[in-house]
Amino acid sequence: MKISEIYKNKKRTLSFEIFPPKKDSRLDNIDDTLDVLAELSPDFISVTFGAGGSSNCNRTIELAKKIKYKYGIEPVVHLTCLHYDSAEIEEFARVLNAEGIENVLALRGDKSDKVPEKNVFRHSSDLINFLKPGYDFCFLGACYPECHPESPDRVSELRHLKYKVDAGAEALISQLFFDNDAFFNFNEECKIAGIDVPVIPGVMPVINAAQIKRMISMCNASFPERFQKIIRRYEDNKEALFDAGMSYALSQIIDLLVSDIPGIHLYTMNNPAVARRICEGIKNIV
């Protein structure tokens, strides 16, 4: 089923993001996480996609097939374009289509010193424009509540986001944030800009201080004072940070759920304990 149809038929959705195990690990090893995620019957699970080389991408497709055909849950395959040419993107799309995968999260992809850019697709809207005439995918897009790190200002950010929606993105999933007001303000600005597709907040629980600090620097997310206190107090206590971080994420999610938002997208980091704690905390309010 296409994600756009799910949003037409449901007031609110719950979805998760996972990533393929490293190339020296078996795909079977992720079943513990998928077993937990499946307990809450999510509307879809997105699978991340690495740049540069087909082996990682094939693992993305294999994992998406497992989600769809073993667990009966719709997969959304991330597809980046900055490091690929037209023929490579066409081949990925052909394989996805042949495997019955209908939903694609169109992404530019992160710049990398290790992987050369092909200079064919500069933006995710270019990817959508390239694939849409030949494939009947439901395209989703990414958005940044606090602006993309490379964006010069909020006006430019919203203008490019509108280009993405006009190209064919039928829903938007936000990058992580830790201040719900930032998302609420961004959501209102999207409406004013004429962006009329579902905008889904993405939430990442804080369980590893070093990882979160790295992600924040990449994603331009701000540190609310309440969040900073958690990091300062518990960054050297792994168990305490896990508990405090999960409580913070649950408070974020509950605040979002009682507001007029169309869904929650959880960045699980492939951690079944994270997935289980969140599922237990929201199972009666989703």
What features would you describe in this structure?
The chain is an alpha/beta fold. It has a single domain, classed as Alpha-Beta Barrel (TIM Barrel). It is about 45% helix and about 15% strand. It contains 11 helices and 8 strands. It has an 8-stranded parallel β-barrel, surrounded by 5 helices. Helix 2 runs parallel beside helix 11, helix 9 packs antiparallel against helix 10 and helix 10 packs across helix 11. The longest helix has 20 residues. The radius of gyration is 18 Å and the shape is globular. It starts with a helix and ends with a helix.
Low-pLDDT runs of 5+ residues are none
Rg of Cα set: 18 Å
Biggest β-sheet: strands ordered side by side in the sheet: 1-2-3-4-5-6-7-8
The total of beta strands comes to 8
Write the CATH architecture name: Alpha-Beta Barrel
Name the CATH class. Alpha Beta
Shape assignment: globular
Structural class: alpha/beta
Kindly identify the CATH topology: TIM Barrel
The total count of helices amounts to 11
Largest sheet: 8 strands, parallel, barrel
Mean pLDDT over all positions: 89
Number of domains: 1
User: Level of helix content?
Assistant: 40-55%
Pick out its properties.
TIM Barrel; 11 helices; eight-stranded parallel barrel; alpha/beta; 46% helix; 286 residues; 16% strand; globular; single chain
